[in-house]
Design goal:
The protein contains 23 helices and 28 strands. Strands 18, 19, 20, 21 and 22 form a five-stranded antiparallel sheet that branches. A four-stranded antiparallel sheet has the order 1-28-27-26, with no helix packed on it. A four-stranded antiparallel sheet has the order 2-3-4-5, with no helix packed on it. Residues 1-30 are annotated as: Disordered.
Length: 727
């Protein structure tokens, strides 16, 4: 027996008595007990009690109490409306329906909630509402019920059973699966198309899904002539077309979709039904899982394990090494694992005991796996075939790998090393324009034989022996060789400080003064040979500060009193603070895109790492590739970003909730992979040019697929595609 089969049968007098007590402005146990009895009666199916709840005063949460008592699905609640006034109107409608249950009577007050009431099939309110819709002959009530039925399957079944017909029947019949009635009501599809044009995006999606589910391919092409559907819609349509054996329609759907979606749809098509054998072969040659991964993260080409005790990541040409520690059965080991990039194949694994391990203060990899590193005293060493060799007494302060070996900076010299380790060239820093006034060196950037050094305000670039130049820039930060340009980030200005005072519990005189400010960085574009200006990108990056002002004294969390601070002195001290590249983001080149620079770094203290891609010629942000290192769906946090010496791959050191890993990104390939989401008919000559520029990727399966899609687009435009009748 249902919960509503035996209503409690509160009499009218009892309901009125409970209503008077529940509506009393004075709170107390009697009011609470009366309200609880009314709500319990509603839950048990007592319609007079529900009618009484509509007369409760406004300070009582009437709607929430009644809605909970009705045990209505929570998904129905938004269908009444989002605002308090709409919910109150819905409750008033419920109360009116319960208070006047005559099936032949529908009033204007009942209309806002009659459809939702009809959806409550398990409550007497739903029974009364359905009787009114069927008996009263009120078209507005029928329209309201049909509108809700289009989104609520339980009510849709009832509407089909009683053959309800709304004012605009065509979209309703389509959405509720009444194919025969839809064809009779709208044989030309004109009314459905008109309803589609004025519908919201959510309603359009449901109409497309209904047309696909019922195999109405001709109607679907009228709703969306370009078949611009999302992936799930396309899959549902393909399943219907396969069931009907409509291979021509399926091929049309494949060639109207994006390559990433076409890969999945091509699995449904027999080979002999393909009108373009080359395109079909390219679609079937790509694994579905691979294309889904490329869609989710276009630039990501690999993931390497790092473990929870990751110490260092070493970069080398086409490879990287992970240095980590491991404690097993009381034994402390240092482990170096060398991987190929981007494939991730393990090339070598070295294990040292704690006392035998090299001191890897700074370290890089040579092309043959040679390990070049400094110890904590700054001496430079080489490890090849397990044997250490001292290369320089040091102290070496900077070390980086190049495609030709390595480059290091000592106290007095710039050192160039061979891939196998030995020093092959030395240049005195003084001869490059760096004297004691500029040292120490803050940054070292190398690309082949080209090297850039930043020391204080001085920027030095050297290439072949004896050829160097220097320029002075304020607050030099990161630098990168981008194509035939040198791009330098430096602090352009610091916004005026805003001071805030924090008062502590000991009294108004115990405060701390905080400085809130913003550093703005610009990108200077220079000719690497002459360091002559070649462009600039102002306001390329910002870093927001929030720091204690100089002079603030902490003692048990408190500071000195406010009258001991000289605000003008704080401003003066703050404005003179030297930066030496502090807070500067990192810069990385993008292969095959000589004008693009990738910028990564924090924008505030303890903040997540952010990034952007910029064209240093136009000064505009580039929206491709879709690369977001800082906001992953798996809640990962990027701790560090590096680049392989050839500039082809970014390596992001990522901390996940359970472990750590290294994610390998190829920005140039990511720029191509984004085309997998461009519909085949929308591919253009510009896309073909972009594909041709990246010649080294021509054998990549995704690039071959894009090439076949462009060829199909070109052939279709010239009318050379074979027709179905010509096969």
């Amino acid at each position: 027996m249902s919960r509503h089969a035996q209503p409690p049968g509160l009499g009218r007098a009892e309901v009125d008595r409970l209503l008077r007590r529940a509506g009393s402005p004075r709170s107390g146990r009697r009011r609470d007990r009366a309200l609880a009895r009314l709500v319990a009666a509603v839950a048990a199916g007592d319609l007079p009690a529900l009618h009484a709840c509509g007369r409760l005063p406004p300070w009582i949460p009437r709607f929430s109490l009644v809605w909970e008592a009705l045990a209505a699905p929570e998904e129905l609640r938004p269908l009444l409306g989002a605002g308090a006034a709409e919910l109150d109107a819905g409750l008033d409608a419920f109360a009116a329906i319960a208070g006047r249950p005559d099936p032949a009577l529908v009033t204007r007050e009942m209309l806002p909630g009659i459809a939702v009431a009809a959806a409550l099939a398990g409550h007497p309110l739903g029974v009364v509402a359905r009787r009114k819709i069927l008996t009263a002959g009120d078209q507005a009530a029928v329209d309201a019920a049909c509108a809700l039925a289009a989104r609520w399957p339980g009510l849709a079944e009832w509407c089909r059973e009683h053959e309800l017909t709304p004012t605009d029947p065509a979209p309703f019949f389509l959405l509720t699966g009444q194919s025969l009635r839809h064809r009779l009501a709208d044989p030309t599809g004109r009314d459905t198309v008109a309803a589609y044009r004025r519908a919201s995006e959510d309603e359009r999606r449901r109409l497309r899904a209904a047309a696909a589910a019922h195999g109405s391919f001709s109607l679907l092409t009228r709703l969306e002539p370009d078949l611009a559907l999302d992936g799930e819609e396309l899959l549902r349509l393909a399943e219907v077309l396969v069931g009907r054996g409509d291979w021509a329609a399926l091929w049309t759907t494949i060639t109207a979709s994006a390559p990433a979606d076409a890969v999945r749809l091509a699995r449904y098509l027999p080979e002999h039904e393909a009108r373009d054998p080359r395109l079909f072969a390219a679609l079937r040659a790509v694994a579905v899982d691979d294309v889904l991964a490329a869609q989710a993260d276009p630039a990501r080409v690999g993931t390497l394990p790092a473990g929870t005790h990751l110490a260092q990541v070493l970069h080398g040409p086409g490879q990287l090494a992970v240095v980590r520690t491991e404690v097993t059965a009381g034994r402390y080991d240092v482990i170096l694992e060398r991987y190929a990039v981007p494939g991730g194949d393990l090339l070598e694994r070295r294990v040292w005991g704690r006392r035998d391990a090299p001191e890897l203060h700074r370290a890089v990899l040579g092309a043959d796996g040679t390990l070049v590193h400094t110890d904590r005293r700054g001496a430079l060493w080489s490890w090849a075939r397990g044997e250490p060799a001292r290369l320089h007494d040091g102290p070496v302060t900077h070390l980086t790998a190049t495609v030709n070996g390595w480059v290091a900076v000592s106290r007095e010299e710039l050192l160039f090393g061979a891939p196998g380790g030995p020093v092959r060239r030395r240049e005195p820093l003084a001869g490059l324009g760096l004297d004691e006034a500029h040292l120490p060196v803050d940054r070292l950037v190398a690309a082949g034989e080209r090297v850039a050094l930043a020391a204080g305000h001085r920027l030095v670039v050297t290439g072949a022996p004896g050829r160097s130049g220097h320029a002075d820039l304020p607050d030099i930060g990161a630098a990168a060789f981008v194509g035939d340009r040198l791009v330098v980030a430096h602090r352009d200005r610091r916004s005026h400080a805003e001071l805030s005072r924090r008062t502590f519990v000991d009294g108004p005189d115990d405060v701390s003064v905080w400085v809130h400010s913003t550093d703005t960085f610009r990108l200077d574009v220079r000719d690497p040979g002459t360091l002559a200006p070649a462009g600039a990108v102002p306001d390329a990056w910002q870093y927001k500060h929030s720091d204690l002002a100089d002079g603030t004294i902490h003692d048990r969390g408190y500071s000195r009193s406010a009258d001991q601070f000289d605000v003008d002195a704080i401003h003066t001290s703050w404005a003179r603070t030297p930066a030496r590249g502090q807070y500067s983001p990192d810069l990385f080149p993008v292969p095959d895109h000589p004008h693009w620079v990738y910028i990564a770094g924090a924008t505030e203290k303890y903040g997540r790492m952010k990034q952007k891609l910029m064209d240093v010629v136009t000064g505009n942000a580039v929206t491709s590739p879709a690369l977001d290192l800082a906001d992953h769906r798996d809640s990962a946090r990027v701790r560090q970003v590096g680049v392989t010496p050839d500039g082809r791959h970014l390596i992001a050191k990522v901390a996940t909730p359970s472990d750590a890993e290294l994610r390998v990104y190829d920005l140039a390939l990511g720029a191509l992979r984004r085309l997998l989401d461009v519909r085949i008919p929308d591919l253009t000559v510009a896309h073909r040019t972009e594909l041709a520029r990246a010649a080294r990727y021509r054998d990549h399966p995704h690039v071959r697929l894009l090439d076949a899609c462009l060829a199909h687009r070109r052939a279709r435009g010239s009318g050379r595609e074979r027709s179905a009748s010509g096969q």
